[in-house]
Design goal:
InterPro entries: ATPase_NBD (IPR043129), Heat_shock_70_CS (IPR018181), Hsp_70_fam (IPR013126). This is Hsp70 protein. Belongs to the heat shock protein 70 family. By secondary structure, the chain is of the alpha+beta class. The protein has 10 helices and 18 strands. Strands 1, 2, 3, 4, 10 and 11 form a 6-stranded mixed beta sheet that branches. A 5-stranded mixed beta sheet has the order 14-13-12-17-18, sandwiched between helices. It is globular. It starts with a strand and ends with a helix.
Amino acid sequence: MTYSLGIDLGTTCTAAAVSDGTGTRIVRLGREATVSSAVFVAESGELITGDAAEREAVGQPLRASRAHKRRLADPNLLRIAGSVRSPTSLMAAQLRDVVDTVTRAQGRPPGVVVLTCPAVWGPYRREHFIQVPRLAGLRNVRVVTEPEAAAMHYSVERRLGDGEIVGVYDLGGGTFDATILRARPNGMEILGTPEGVEQLGGLDFDDALLAFVDGQLGGALSSMDTPLVDHARLRHAAREACRQAKEDLSTNAETVIRVESPDGTRHETAISRAKFNSLIKSHLDLTTESLKRAIGSAGLNPADLTGVLLAGGSSRIPFVEQIVSDAFGKPVRVGLHPKLTVAMGAAAIARLEANRPAIPARRVASPPPLVSLAATRSPVSSRSRTAVAEVRAPLSFPTPITSARGRGPAKRTIPSPAPATWSRSPLNRTGVLAAAALAAGVMLLVGVLIAVMVLNGS
């Protein structure tokens, strides 16, 4: 039995889910359901990804790259241990390893793969993201936005009614998306213009905690020289301690952050949930303002929403649900595993695509917002070198047009122009011959005039 695959290549972690006739389920990519999105560049040039990259980075922290998704489309390439890498190539290595892991677990490759990207990304970022499956040597890949995938999962899990309008609040590790969606029998319809903040997520909450600890220690952390291996290791350990504290505060009223300074001194800093909330409130205010703009772009008011769906790992922070509920006064829906919501929804969409009837071989437009890639699989190892695949299908995203409510983008299909044809009617041939004769006569007259002018000049 064939299966479809949904993959969420997140800024900090990556998740994958499969969908077939028995349902949709998460595939464990490592010790846990998700794996780190880190990439380690070995001395041989091999790219090691996921949890294995984190293990290698313990001894050689300067060879690891993290959060490179934030640098996608940045003209300045990444310099990692003397080598130059693009975020696209690092993400392609991640994607190859995820697909290989799932293929081994399922015993065969997937039929259709759906990837997700932030809705707030513009065409330039999206075009760079499309290169990721190309470089990974994959075929039958489609791309949808993360809020669409999240809403698809919720619609399956909780059965959104036809016509229900929901706001999707997607707060991940590196980006925030706000999108308004309307449930339809054949899928989710985007209303208005998606909003968001590209550089806002769990990483920024970690930074807020790190800055708090650094202030408590008189700048002991910020004074470290990152290019030094020992200092880089200590800074990463401090960041990990802050990340763990952030997660602990989702269930505990207070916790202790333990860090080490370069002189070997160990420090402990206590922090309460209330203090943590105060550190991230300004960030969360930006997210609610984004969702309000998305609602307004659809010509709606918060009262028109059935509820707000929370997605993304950072939405598990209790203060997030409180802030959203206070800002909009609507039911806030949280899944059992917000970190896995996008991957589960992507797998469900992939399953629908696999079951879609084949399109006859004629000129028709591809159904937006899916992006179709068809490429040849490279025989090169998925963990050593980047293989460039051939694109066999046009790449496009839906063109924004005015929606029925007068504002915001809606989906449309643009038919391909009909191919030019040559008319074989006698009338058409006669007209062409007459035009040719006239042109010849003009050329002859011009030649005679030039000859007369030459003779007069001599």
